[in-house]
Amino acid sequence: MHEKERHRIILSAVQEKPVVTVGEMVELTESSEATIRRDIATLHVQKKLRRVRGGAEAINPPQFPGLAGRPFSVNETINIAQKRAIALKAVELCVDGDPIIINGGTTTFQMVHLLAARRMQIFTNSFPIAEHLLKHSKNTIMLSGGVIYREQNIILSPFENDVTRNFYARRMFMGAQGLGKLGLMEADPLLIQAEQKLMGQADELVVLADSSKFGKRSSLVLCPLDRVTTVITDDGIRDEDRQMLEEAGVGLIIVDKTARDQASIVA
After folding, report:
1. pLDDT 10s digits, 216-259
2. Which of 134, 139, 193, 207 is buried deepest, with most CB atoms within 10 A?
3. Helix ranges, 93-212 (H)
């Protein structure tokens, strides 16, 4: 990752949380600790952030805390060919008339272009997904209520009695920060709370995750692997990860180069 891109991610992170640790920045940028410390020193000298012990904080701290994890605008540029191909396979599972849930994320967002010609009932907590489908499709769209977190473009509610409990879905399509033997992982407790509510409303859980997600870890587990019905990923998946999914009874759909080329044409 180039220095300019790292700096953009770091500055975005400190605007979302009161203090961001060096470890969190290492995970966000996938860079070394030494590189991050140099970046913090540079941005401190430029008066773009304030260096503190073990991390950094914003010059003008945010009024409201944000969510942990990379911003939507950064994530959507990573592994874009794989994400488009994975989304294409996900939409092939959709049947006109079916009620579905699409959780916010950059891979699930790629589904919207392919759903334009469909006629479905779609519930989402993603502002950009809802906006695109309203403008470019005839699908029926329902949004969850709550606070819009700008960096992730996601809507989250702290209340139990929101509209989520009144929507049933045949399938829920979602991403994850990481996948491992313990299950799906996420970066923020608020995301965990919201996604668990949505998962409870769907019969099947379809996870859209490029192969890099199998190497990611987090301290927060969203759900065990046996809750997942199907994982759609690319052909970069390792043999041990295939075996892990098979032992957990999870269905696996793999997109190859041909599928990526097809998705690029469709996009």
Report:
1. 777 788 899 999 999 999 999 999 999 999 999 999 999 986 65
2. 207
3. 106-109, 127-136, 189-199
